[in-house]
Amino acid sequence: MRITVIGTGYLGAVHAACMADSGHEVLGVDVDPRKLAALSEGRPPFFEPGLPELLRRTVDAGSLRFTDSLQEAGEFGEVHFVCVGTPQQPGSYAADMKYVDAVVDGLAPHLRDGSLVVGKSTVPVGTAARLAGRIAELNPAVDAELAWNPEFLREGFAVQDTLRPDRLVVGVTSERADAMLREVYAPMLTAGCPYISTDLATAELVKVAANSFLATKISFVNAMAEVCDAAGGDVVTLADAIGHDTRIGRRFLSAGVGFGGGCLPKDIRAFMARAGELGVGEALSFLKAVDEVNMRRRQRTVDLARELVGGSFLGKNVAILGAAFKPDSDDVRDSPALNIAAAIQLQGGQVRVHDPEAIDNARAQFPTLDYALDIEKACERADLVLHLTEWTQYRELDAGRLLKVVREPVLIDGRNTLDMAAWRSAGWTVRALGRSQH
Ligand code: UGA
């Protein structure tokens, strides 16, 4: 099929390359000339494992190319995927719809008869119906439709999540739209991927419900960490123990500095805002607690750090391992690690941050923090080391060697992934939230 993918961020660039790899002819569309130049040469403008190879292969094969023209997209495509961002609005919990609206307004006049616009961006429920009306209003003569197909890919695993999704969810208003989407995803369906075809509102809600559930799971275990701290329990053992119950499951029960990124935090807030508009704000009031537990993790980490350096950060060197909101990503949007680093700096600490991939993005957001490309350099003369993003290379660190570099061998494991016993036997004092007995 001839497919366009509009918006080439973490979601769109991966989707475009995967669609091209699945046998479609794909045109990627973006307004950013820098991104377009990189992508046209087969280079992703961000870090995502597996994407460079896929992009190069599909661009070289001629099945994927890029443009900045929505007119060209409209004339080319049978199916148009809308993959632009829906960030949190400044001064509000609600999602900012300006990028999605601009794409639909720009594309609608150029749509061909029989074409299908498919929203993938995470949006407030009701958006799809509104946009379908907008297309009909802007181009009343065209026989085009709109569908919604939420995306569940995780950064760091985006390629495998797109090529082998655990489910496909589509919201459609006609059998024709459903048939077109089945054709788009034919390789996944042949491989046995579950396919859920529903109405527009349910499809939109599935996405925010899934992210809200994941956020709730993380905040649940972090709330248990708070209780463990008060009662003298160990949250990691607790999570392991309840996780053995298959009804609960161990995944997304890793306690630590909490969730960040461009999705979970803003999605739960936009969902609360939308529920309020729909008159069912009370139904989602628990998400406010989920958000509060999560944000408290950052504060508690700063408090523990201050306690460990003797009550004040003044004159103290603090090394931060990790800047990305999670490993295998260079995304620093709403990163707990960087928020904690900035708070310590604000309180007078000399902060130096290391990350294997996210330094450039981190520097752009927090230019006054100090950065190091080398772990030992970041830890040089440190009074405290904070492990805040669980990159594999931090797990493989030689604790004995690092001990010789720092001023005080004190470590906070903000992700509960380091081998505490090994660090302690190398001579370190190790602390973690929710693990007072360890
Ligand atoms: C999330 C969802 O997992 C995807 O399914 C969804 O498609 C995506 O949002 C989206 O809406 O686009 P992502 O933001 O890439 O994906 O990251 P996650 O893997 O969900 O992690 C989110 C945050 O939770 C990270 O900061 C991570 O460190 C944290 N986390 C995760 C924990 O603190 N504990 C855990 O047990 C798991």
From TrEMBL:
Positions of substrate binding: F152, L153, R154, E155, K207, F252, L253, S254, A255, G256, G260, K326
Residues the entry annotates as binding NAD(+): D30, K35, T86, T122, E155, K266, R333
Protein keywords: NAD, Oxidoreductase
A GO molecular-function annotation: NAD binding
Name of the featured protein: UDP-glucose 6-dehydrogenase
Pathway terms, separated by semicolons: Nucleotide-sugar biosynthesis; UDP-alpha-D-glucuronate biosynthesis; UDP-alpha-D-glucuronate from UDP-alpha-D-glucose: step 1/1
Pfam families assigned: UDPG_MGDP_dh, UDPG_MGDP_dh_C, UDPG_MGDP_dh_N
Any GO BP: polysaccharide biosynthetic process
Active site per the UniProt annotation: C263
Residues of the UDP-glucose/GDP-mannose dehydrogenase C-terminal domain: 319-420
Lineage: Bacteria, Bacillati, Actinomycetota, Actinomycetes, Pseudonocardiales
InterPro entries, A to Z: 6-PGluconate_DH-like_C_sf (IPR008927), NAD(P)-bd_dom_sf (IPR036291), UDP-Glc/GDP-Man (IPR017476), UDP-Glc/GDP-Man_DH_C (IPR014027), UDP-Glc/GDP-Man_DH_C_sf (IPR036220), UDP-Glc/GDP-Man_DH_dimer (IPR014026), UDP-Glc/GDP-Man_DH_N (IPR001732), UDPglc_DH_bac (IPR028357)
Catalytic activity field: UDP-alpha-D-glucose + 2 NAD(+) + H2O = UDP-alpha-D-glucuronate + 2 NADH + 3 H(+)
Record-listed E.C. numbers: 1.1.1.22
Family: Belongs to the UDP-glucose/GDP-mannose dehydrogenase family.
